[in-house]
Fold each of these.
Amino acid sequence: MEAVKVSENVYWVGVNDRKLELFENLWPLPYGVAYNSYIIDDEKVTLIDTVEEGQLNQYMKEIKEIIGDNRGIDYLIVNHMEPDHSGLIEALVKEFPNIKLVGNKKTIEMMESFFGITNNTYEVKEGDVIDLGKHRLKFYTTPMVHWPESMVAYEETEKMLFSSDAFGSFGTLDGGIFDDEVELDFFEGEMRRYYSNIVGKYGGAVQRAFTKLKDLDIKRICPSHGPIWRSYPEKVLELYDKWSKYEGEEGVVIVYGTMYGNTAKIAESIGRAITQKGIKNVKIYDASKTHSSFIISDIWKYKGLIIGSSTYDATLFPPVESLISKLQNKGIKNKIVGIFGTYGWSGGSLKKLKEFVNSIDCQLAYKPLDIKHSPNESAINECIKLAEDLVNRLRK
Ligand code: FEO
């Protein structure tokens, strides 16, 4: 794709990646991902971040389209050192030997330890400004959104925030680059998946960044992934505020692990009972089938969560074990959680589910249920009570 104008002298020079299967070699990319980079074509030509390493040819072509073959780049702003954005720093230094690499103290340390780069670095501190001519970039550190060196750059003349990972989403930019050119529901979902999978553990850090940036007049948000927010920036600010406070909507995710379908029957009964109490947003997932990336995203969206697991080798069914380990790692909290285990002879899954609930800052609905073999009438009645109690708590 050609370079796209974000404003008179600011260009998007991003690339789409439809080849990569797993982001961070972990999270599926069925809809691909875009790596966004930007050029400010001013007296000082400035590039904001780079893209992933494998995208060199396309990226360089887009840059040269704007600056031509005889001009250089004065500054590369390194907002974030994760390889999806820092992947072409070395290539840029080779192509533009006089380029100044702008980062904070931690960025500069990382550039040395990742790439052995020590020359032509330019350290900025909190609130420092670089004057580019008509444009002025002011820097704010945003540690742990998503790495310790993460920072954002606010362009004061046009009131644009180059926000790095914050407000980014999975999904390639298939023609549409701006929020008013794309299907917003799709990108809201993929933004929540990016947030919950990648940044979710650091909700406190996101809230601290909000406090720091709250007085800025932001007309456009230019993130490092996904669409540029020029028409609805307030929408993404609101979503990020909600997600980083772990505030869920009215709705329930029911996720189960089953070998032969008996645990699934229980999940279905609970789902039905919740719906009969008037909750429309109920999502039931089989942990063996749906990748945890998508389940975690929906868990972030809704306030209610029910987890059921059959017993396998006297402990949790492995896909459920993997999911709850990720949830613990992400610091999931502020949910209303119901749990049930099933077993054939010795039991074991419920003990682990109880340990999980005790380890997170969430409210337990009703009581843990342990069910032998297939659910009988009395077990189903208990499941209905669990569903009713969870709905009552959701509505308090
Ligand atoms: Fe898109 Fe933390 O990198």
Note: The pocket of MU-OXO-diiron is lined by residues 80, 82, 84-85, 146, 165, 224-225 (CB under 6 Å).
Amino acid sequence: MRAQPKASHHINGKYVEDKSGDVIESIHPANGEVIARLFEATPEVIDQAMTAAQAAQAEWAARAPVERGRILRRAAEIMRARNRELSVLETLDTGKPLQETLVADAASGADALEYFGGFAPTVTGQTIALGGDMAYTLREPFGVCAGIGAWNYPMQIAAWKAAPALAFGNAMVFKPSEITPLSALALAEILSEAGLPDGLFNVVQGRGAVGAALAADARVAKVSLTGSVPTGRTVYAAAAAGIKAVTMELGGKSPLIVFEDADLDNAVGAAMLANFYSSGQICSNGTRVFVQRGIKDAFLDKLAARTAKIVLGDPLDEATQMGPLVSAGQMERVLGYIAQGKAEGARLVCGGAQLGEAGCFVQPTVFADVRDEMVIAREEIFGPVMAVLDFEEEDAVIARANATEYGLSAGVFTRDLARAHRVVGQLQAGTCWINAYNLTPVEMPFGGMKASGVGRENGHAALEHYTRVKSVYLGLGDVDAPF
Ligand code: NDP
């Protein structure tokens, strides 16, 4: 099983290798096989990428937006045509089942390229009447943006950052997570093939230190990170030192509130999606499932029955519904939380163990009778571990849902739409779902409140985060000077 790219980095439209960097191994987590060996970017490699990005950006920004958009839309088409190949690559790198990657990863990346490709030519400024004189505004790109990605949706994260950055005239230097280094290189190849001029999208590999070097580089005007809250604090601080713009897409411990009048099958299905899709490794997951007491038993019965039927196994088999966790380290972390849940007295409804000898498989796990103060109800686990908590009153559950430093997402299940809107109006979360969960179409802005982040990806909101406004005052009369 090999997925060795031509070289570690993709800079100025070409693969670049420098074997003096530390080795990075990409491991297929279903069996522990090394599928690719790459090298971390050295300072010289980072410099090469930055120089290329800076040199290419001005000419790109000067192009007609419709032309920039056309290239991105062409890239979207190539990506869709290669969906299977890209999905297999993503499955090898992350362990996510092919059943998922075929519909959720390259497909979502292609949506972003298509959406922002179409958006680019529609961007306009304002004209502002000033009673005689006037002003107008221009939306200008930042210049060079740094993108730093997490390992759970490597292709999607790279595309969600590259598409708006490039559409609005920026260049980007992107560092994937060292755990999943491969698909960003495939995106760079596709963009080049679609006609993106050299230097505009560069991929450099590395661990945290490479990300830190990008965030601190004086040539970078904007930093976009997808990662954990602790990393977010560090990267935000580095960006602050250079007064750089940031987008921070960070972690969460999101609430999913199920009222007694909810459609139970849909609510159970959503809770499973919100905890077991991608083996639970999704930032927006609804990992605190608050169930109103009257339906608690029925909810747990249905949940346990459906969870028992989840097909775990070889992620390359399209019948598999759940693959391994991304790495042995992540598996150990998740098993540690499961042990803690048991020790704290939460009731294990199903799962709770590692599966098999080889590979990083953890059973889909449900804890009931979870209390707010338990560690499994407070910390982001990033694995297939659902915590079910009881509630009685609407006001009390809203307060409990909000009693966290996170504020990424939230969900409400009820047939009472007035209640749904009332509750959503009070939830401190950047993205809320009513009678749905974890759907993130490119048309809808996505991002966090509180410690879950700053800025928004996708939708019209992304324009705010990949352009800055220039105001131009137009004097149409004589200058009124008091001198
Ligand atoms: P990390 O925070 O560990 O890493 C994120 C990225 O930052 C990686 O590329 C990492 O490199 C890099 N990095 C680490 N330290 C630094 C540093 N000091 N300066 C610059 N870059 C650095 O997150 P994970 O990769 O473990 O991903 C899981 C986390 O991501 C979860 O908390 C999850 O909630 C969050 N996430 C948020 C999403 C959102 O949109 N809100 C979406 C997906 C995930 P390296 O790989 O070497 O560690």
Note: The longest helix spans residues 43-62.
